[in-house]
Amino acid sequence: MLLSTPRTRHMLSRHAGLAAVAASLAATALLWAAPAGAAPKAAHAMSPHSPAAAQRAASGGNLAYGGGSVVTNPTIYIVYWGNQWGSGSTVTNDPSGEVPLQLSFFQRTYGSGDTWSNSQTQYCEGVAVGTTQCGGAGTAVGHPASNPVAGTWLDSSTKAPSKPGSSQIAAEAVKAASHFGVSGDNVEIIVDAPHGVVPQGFKTSYCAWHDHTTASNGADLPYTNMPYVPDAGSGCGANFVPTGSSGVNGATEGVTIVGGHEYAETLTDPAPSSGWVDSSGSETGDKCAWISSGQGASSIVALNGAPFAVQSLWSNNFNGGAGGCVTHYTSSGNQG
């Protein structure tokens, strides 16, 4: 197991004295007693498709607040890591078309045309540790009023390692944050690895993961390790959702299923596991991953008029407060 001690020390110092955070960290460490290279212990990863991964919603209960931050004003920055994507500033090597699909997806996660990710606005910060229903208290997770993607960058100044580890991915996130001139818990840096690059643990232990590190100015920095998901095929979402006449390409469904999973978890738990997790350490996306039928099944949804494959997300206030996985959220009384 790779450890990122600067991130872990930062998280612990930031939330010292919060017993619930310590319990969540312990639970997460147990979850990630995985093969070496899977993901750093502090990170939260999306497991590849398997029957076990689809059972997480059945245990752990509702999400509870751990005392840390949530994302109150989501802003997304994407870095295409390495000259394998192309030279100069133009992506030319993207055989599955991940770049335009990912960008189109995130550019549409805003306003009344997005009734998928807005379910996460029920969660908040600044309330008592252990809270499960904010009820208007605290400061809620934000839902953008307009396109939340504030920048993209092809970092062609270097070649991405063929099998990068967590510290190398974190360093690229910091480099990207410096390029964009951003930091803080309202920022999500997505580090896109190119086709053929296999970050340590990708395909076998995870599809993607999110974590936080420290930016060059000393501020917190949430980021996502996003491998080239189509390279993993059905293990990371290819053809998971029947496409029908939607126009969605089954081969690239994983780009938005996995990307959406990590985005929602960053919103509610940008510094794992100090935000919203259940008693087993699972986050909002973990609890609803790889459901293929029945309530909360992954599906094709329209985001501001365009169709995308997504998984459901956990809603504490669904089913009279008992909680459950939902793919649309018009209000606390109109979701499913």
Key words describing this protein structure:
16 strands, 336 residues, two-stranded antiparallel ribbon, 5 helices
Write the layout of secondary structure elements.
Elements: H1 5-14, H2 19-31, E1 44-46, E2 64-65, E3 75-81, H3 98-107, E4 124-125, E5 139-140, E6 149-155, H4 166-180, E7 187-192, E8 208-214, E9 220-226, H5 253-268, E10 276-277, E11 299-303, E12 306-310, E13 313-315, E14 324-326, E15 329-331, E16 334-335
Helix pairs in contact: 3-5
Number of strands: 16
The share of residues in helices is 10-25%
Q: What does the largest sheet look like? A: 6 strands, mixed
How many domains? The number is: 1
Helix and strand sequence: HHEEEHEEEHEEEHEEEEEEE
Structural class: alpha+beta
> Low-confidence runs (pLDDT<50, min 5 residues)?
1-36
Radius of gyration: 18 Å
Give, in spatial order, the strands making up the sheet with the most strands: 1-8-9-7-3-6
Helical stretch count? 5
Distance between the termini: 38 Å
The dominant shape is globular
How much strand?
15-25%
Average pLDDT figure: 89
